[in-house]
Design a protein that fits this description.
With about 500 residues, the protein is an all-alpha fold. About 0% of the residues have low confidence. It contains 23 helices and no strands. Helix 8 packs antiparallel against helix 22 and helix 13 runs antiparallel to helix 14. The chain has two domains: about 190 residues, no CATH class; about 280 residues, no CATH class. The chain starts with a helix and ends with a helix.
Length: about 500
């Protein structure tokens, strides 16, 4: 009972500290984990200093080592895309293709931002893309708040398919990558539909379109295209999960590989053709540079490459596709400065690992103590069995209604207390690990798109001259409705 009350007190204090911004999450989370372990040792007496120093702090800090390394490679890839001009050029080329019709401009902007953020990350990337996309949306008549909402939807849409965001679920919950990516594709398709619904709503709200034959035809074409892309992505994953890959998937792999080799040959030919006048030639972004965000994603979805290997392939391709004077120096800078750009997330992963380790206990502790359960976990389990949803219906309704708790660094915020709650839910044994992953990925979209405490949201709102709280209210209804859909799919698949 004593440890249970202590746990509740520490959780409440940590939530208040982060909500009031007295301390950032990067400091609060490890302190919370250490406080849990030390408090349990003080009350129980069966926990040694070695258990805390090595089992909780040292082992916990390294618990998410794979996610940390992937983050460094992801940061390096993002750095190359930004510094080479590939990301900026992609948005400008897309803007020129769609013309001035507000519906295609809105949808293409959403998809372009999503494509870029499958590889991009960090506030620098947000600023760079926003300063190109937001003025483009304003020129077709969309309000500042609507433009900001479309940008945030696109960023979250890309983040769903950013493989560096999947590793933390595989590391913490032990969920196979195949299950994470197959569910991520479902979330991607639904976020895309929600984003398109927001665009149509904003266009009618601003009286930029009306129901006529041209609008209906454009809308039907876009919906058909999005449905086809979503079906192809989901079907490709489903085919592999059912056993031997389907014949059409094998042919897709062969075609993709042949195209990749062809592009590499074109890159080599281009480099050899201009190497004599390398220094004097004007630097231009070639068409194959636009494939940079697709390469690591295709390597995972089509060829089942491990996430780290896929990012390594993507980074090498990015250097080759943007080959120019100083490319070797750019490659070195990308690893150093790109890694530095994700250091806040890596340091936060230290704290998440310590917190999770404090909840579930050090590896081997149970065996060393004759089968006894780690005291923190033993105090949590009886309460959890009464509170955790035990049916699929309760899972959908309960976590669906609780989704706004991901806002303001609440208990379901994936970069706040969320992973501590994840460890507690996993320890209960009531909810399957894959369903916990699906819940966190689902409510994470509320945090990613709507949370007024996100640095990106604050910057975008300030740049557009709108209140960040108003921006939250503008986006929340669309995302919250989608959460119930995602949870229902998760219940059918994983429960």
């Amino acid at each position: 009972m004593g440890i249970g009350l202590l746990l509740l007190l520490i959780f409440v204090v940590a939530a208040l500290v982060m909500f009031t911004r007295a301390l950032p999450a990067v400091i609060t989370l490890p302190l919370m984990g250490i406080a849990l372990a030390c408090g349990a040792a003080w009350i129980d007496g069966g926990i040694s200093s070695q258990d805390i120093l090595k089992g909780v702090i040292s082992d916990g800090a390294l618990k998410l080592h794979e996610a940390m390394i992937v983050s460094v490679f992801g940061g390096a890839l993002s750095f190359v895309m930004q510094k080479s001009g590939a990301a900026e050029s992609a948005v400008k080329q897309g803007a020129e293709l769609v013309g001035a019709n507000p519906l295609p401009v809105g949808v293409v902007s959403l998809l372009l931002v999503a494509l870029l953020f499958t590889s991009l990350g960090g506030l620098g990337a947000v600023i760079m893309v926003a300063m190109i996309v937001l003025p483009m949306l304003a020129t077709v008549g969309l309000s500042p708040a609507a433009g900001a909402a479309i940008l945030l939807f696109g960023m979250s849409l890309g983040g769903v398919l950013n493989p560096s965001n999947w590793v933390i679920y595989t590391s913490l919950l032990g969920v196979p990558v195949a299950e994470v990516k197959s569910y991520a594709l479902v979330v991607f398709a639904t976020v895309m539909v929600a984003g398109c619904a927001l665009i149509v709503f904003e266009l009618f709200r601003s009286r930029l379109v009306r129901w006529d034959a041209r609008f209906v035809a454009t809308l039907a074409g876009l919906v058909g295209l999005l449905a086809l892309v979503s079906w192809a992505l989901v079907a490709s994953t489903g085919a592999r999960e059912s056993g031997e890959p389907a014949a059409w998937l094998l042919w897709t792999r062969r075609v993709a590989l042949a195209l990749f080799v062809l592009v590499l040959a074109l890159i080599a030919r281009d480099a050899l053709g201009k190497i004599a006048r390398w220094r004097q030639q004007e630097v231009r972004v070639r068409g194959w540079a636009y494939l940079i965000p697709i390469v690591p994603l295709a390597a995972i979805l089509l060829f089942d490459l491990p996430i780290l290997a896929a990012f390594a392939v993507g980074l090498v391709y990015a250097i080759l596709a943007t080959l120019r004077p100083g490319s070797l120096a750019l490659a070195v800078r990308s690893l150093i400065e790109g890694g530095a750009s994700v250091m806040p997330a890596i340091v936060l992963m230290f704290g998440i690992g310590i917190l999770v380790q404090a909840v579930i206990g050090p590896a081997g502790w149970k065996d060393a103590h004759g089968g006894a359960t780690w005291p923190v976990l033993a105090a949590i389990e009886p309460v959890l069995r009464k509170c955790v949803p035990s049916t699929a219906f309760a899972y959908v309704v309960g976590f669906g209604l609780a989704a706004p708790l991901a806002l303001y660094r609440g208990p379901l915020n994936v970069w706040g207390l969320g992973y501590g709650v994840t460890a507690i839910l996993q320890s209960s044994g009531v909810i399957p690990p894959a369903a916990i992953m699906a819940m966190m990925l689902s409510v994470g979209q509320v945090q990613g798109i709507c949370d007024p405490t996100n640095t990106a949201n604050v910057w975008v709102a300030n740049y557009q001259g709108v209140d960040v709280q108003r921006l939250m209210l503008r986006t929340l209804p669309f995302v919250w409705a989608a959460v119930f859909v995602w949870l229902a799919v998760a219940a059918l698949r994983f429960w």
